Automatic annotation (TrEMBL):
Organism (species): Didymodactylos carnosus
Protein name: Uncharacterized protein
Keywords: Signal
Residues spanning the signal sequence: 1-19
InterPro entries (alphabetical): WD40/YVTN_repeat-like_dom_sf
Gene3D superfamilies for the chain: YVTN repeat-like/Quinoprotein amine dehydrogenase
Length: 291
């Protein structure tokens, strides 16, 4: 479909495709029919952040209001936060929607299934500690990952608030389940917070993009200059693929079984993850249509 809006954010939840433009206009299209009618359109006066959790969209507005757009596309206001959040620092993990206050003193956690809001007070010095402005936050199962404007990464244990882990500098990072991959100075660091493991992979060349796949088993790295895509197994750090892909932009996304790359001619390049160590790879490959 061809659209005449400049998209700054999109999310797909079957059967809908939600798009947001730079003026905070939110549009929803049907992802199933090709007619491309707008099923929903709402102009938000304030900047917003949109997330999808199960069958609903959750919208955080910079005036501290949180709304929900359900599967019937009915927009309802859920609650008003008791703090300012003009920076829209927020993240989702499973059924939890987490929002950090602008003064970094409080986290609000909305449990979407129980429809329950709780506030966690945080010692300000914990998260601030010389690193200045926070750029974004991410949630792992029981950790809050904080990424600062100066590209420093820190992890805070929500189950044991006195534990704060320093992950060091990161030019970029990727999070999935309880795993984190970060890139800095030609090396890739991997962290598994469930087993408290960490590993390092020395890269052959510069990393332009990195991405953990959906189940956190593999990490993918692209290098645009040499048109290379690398795939590593997180469990043992072994390289299991190195592919030459011409005309890639470097942007990469990976589900449990597939990797999607964008090419400079606006086409998508889809690859299947085939790990020789995993049983049934042959069978999986045989199910693919021939080219
Ligand atoms: C909480 O974290 C602190 C600091 O890392 C540690 O000393 C303490 O043993 C932890 N407590 C529990 C219950 O794990
Ligand atoms: C991290 O980055 C800062 C600059 O932002 C630099 O001064 C510092 O040396 C870096 N630390 C490491 C371990 O590379
Ligand atoms: C980058 O890595 C190299 C070799 O591993 C090391 O010598 C250098 O000090 C590192 N630079 C920074 C800024 O950490
Ligand atoms: C694709 O790459 C080739 C070789 O690097 C180049 O000649 C060509 O112009 C590229 N095509 C596009 C659409 O960028
Ligand atoms: C885009 O580029 C890729 C590889 O460079 C090529 O295989 C594909 O046919 C191109 N698609 C279009 C629509 O030009």
């Amino acid at each position: 479909m061809k659209l005449s809006i400049s998209i700054v954010y999109f999310v797909l939840i079957s059967p809908y495709l939600l798009l947001m433009d730079s003026k905070h206009d939110v549009y929803i299209y049907s992802a199933r029919d090709k007619k491309c009618d707008v099923l929903f359109h709402h102009v938000f006066i304030n900047p917003v952040r949109v997330y999808s959790i199960q069958n609903s969209f959750y919208i955080l507005q910079s005036n501290s209001k949180v709304s929900k757009l359900d599967a019937e596309l009915c927009l309802t206001d859920l609650f008003q936060l008791k703090f300012k959040c003009q920076q829209l620092l927020s993240a989702v993990q499973g059924e939890l929607f987490t929002i950090l206050s602008d003064d970094y003193s409080t986290i609000a956690v909305w449990h979407t299934k129980l429809a329950k809001l709780s506030y966690i007070s945080i010692a300000q010095n914990h998260i601030m500690e010389n690193n200045g402005q926070i750029k974004e936050i991410r949630c792992l199962q029981n950790f809050l990952l904080v990424y600062y404007q100066n590209k420093y990464l820190r992890l805070w244990n929500l189950d044991n608030k006195s534990e704060l882990l320093q992950l060091g500098n990161a030019s970029m990072y990727s999070v999935c389940q309880n795993r984190i991959g970060k890139y800095y100075n030609n090396s890739l660091m991997l962290f598994d917070m469930t087993h408290r493991l960490r590993g390092e992979i020395k890269l052959e060349c510069k990393c332009d993009h990195l991405c953990l796949n959906e189940d956190g088993r593999y990490i993918l790295v692209t290098n645009v200059e040499h048109c290379l895509l690398f795939m590593y197994r997180v469990d043992d750090g072994k390289q299991i693929a190195k592919l030459f892909v011409q005309n890639m932009t470097g942007t990469i996304k990976a589900s449990k079984d597939y990797v999607v790359l964008t090419l400079t001619n606006h086409t998508l390049y889809v690859l299947m993850i085939a790990d020789p160590k995993i049983n049934g790879v042959r069978e999986k490959i045989n199910t693919l249509p021939s080219r």
